[in-house]
Amino acid sequence: MQDLNIDLHTHSTCSDGALAPAELVARATAAGIQVLALTDHDSVAGLEEARAAALALGVTLVPGVEISSAWRAQSIHVLGLWIDPASAPLQAALAGQAQRRTLRMQNICAQLELRGLPGKELLAAACAHPGLPTRSHLAAALVAGGHARTPDDAFRKYLGRGKAAQLASDWPALHEAVGWITAAGGIATLAHPARYRLSAGGRRQLFAEFVASGGGAVEVVAGANAAHNAEASARWATTHGLAGSVGSDFHDPQLSWNPLGRLAKLPAGVTPVWRDRLP
C-alpha cells in the first residue's frame, strides 16, 4: 500500500482550480496517480463528476473538501478526507461558507472601488467562474484588467497581508471545522502546516487544540515543501499521535511547483492516513 501513488489534496474549477473535475481526474491518471482526493475550498460540488470519471478510469477517488477556519486570527485550512458529501450538517456548514466567501468578495471589491479601481467590474469577473469566488479569481481579474502584471503582483499590491484590500476573514473557529468533518464521517487533516506563521509555542498549541477538537491527521508531504518541512511535519505528526497525509495542493497545470504525480513518500514512522481506508 505504501507503493501506491497517492495525492490527497487537489482542486478543480469548483473552487480555484484550472481543470474541471473530470479533467483533473484524467490528468491525475495520466500522471500515474492511483488514489486521488478532490478537496475543493468549502465545496463538494465537483465530487459527483470526479467520482464518475474515476470509476471510468480505474482510479480510487477519495471524497474530500478543504474548509477554511480561524485560529488566533489566522486562517487555518482543514482537509476533510473520506467525507460523506451528503451529510446534512456538512451541507449546512458549506452553505454558510459560501455566504461568507461571497460577502468577503463584495467587501474586498468595495475597498478596491474606494481606491479608484473598477470594483463592480472586478466583482462580476471574480464571480463569473463556476466555483465559489476566491481571491485567486479576483487576482486573475486584476491581471486581466491591467491592474497587475501577474496574480502574485495582484497579491503584493492589493490582496496580500497588510495591503489595502486585504480584509480579515470571518471563518468559523478551528474546532467547528473539525467537527463538521468528523460529523460527516471524515478524517480532519491539518493542511500544509509549514505555511502558517507561528512560533514554536504557537504551533504546539495549534496541534494540541486540533487534536483535542477531534483532528486525526496532518499533511506531512505537501506540494512545494522542502525536505526539511516534511521532516518537521513528520515530527509533529508522531509527537501528537496524528496520521500523515500527502497532497500536492494542485491547482493549475501551468504552475510548475506542484505537479501531479511527483510527491515524495511519507517518512518512515508516520502512520498513513489511508492505512485503514484502502483495500
Question: How does this structure look, described?
Answer:
With 279 residues, the protein is of the alpha/beta class. The chain folds into two domains: 6-93 and 174-247, TIM Barrel; 97-159. 40% of the residues lie in helices and 15% in strands. A seven-stranded mixed sheet has the order 1-2-3-4-5-6-7. The model has no long low-confidence stretch (mean pLDDT 92).
Primary descriptors:
7 strands; 7-stranded mixed β-sheet; 9 helices; TIM Barrel; 279 residues; globular; 15% strand; 2 domains; alpha/beta; single chain
The figure for the number of domains is 2
Write the CATH fold name of the largest domain. TIM Barrel
Number of E-type strands: 7
Task: Give the amount of beta strand, in percent.
Answer: 5-15%
- The value of Rg in angstroms is 18 Å
Classification by helices and strands = alpha/beta
Question: Any idea what the CATH architecture of the largest domain is?
Answer: Alpha-Beta Barrel
Distance between the termini: 9 Å
CATH class of the largest domain reads Alpha Beta
Series of secondary-structure elements, N-terminal to C-terminal: EHEHEEHHHHHEHEHE
Average pLDDT works out at 92
Biggest sheet: strand arrangement: 1-2-3-4-5-6-7
**Count of helical segments?**
9
CATH superfamily of the largest domain: Metal-dependent hydrolases
Regions with pLDDT < 50 over 5+ consecutive residues?
none
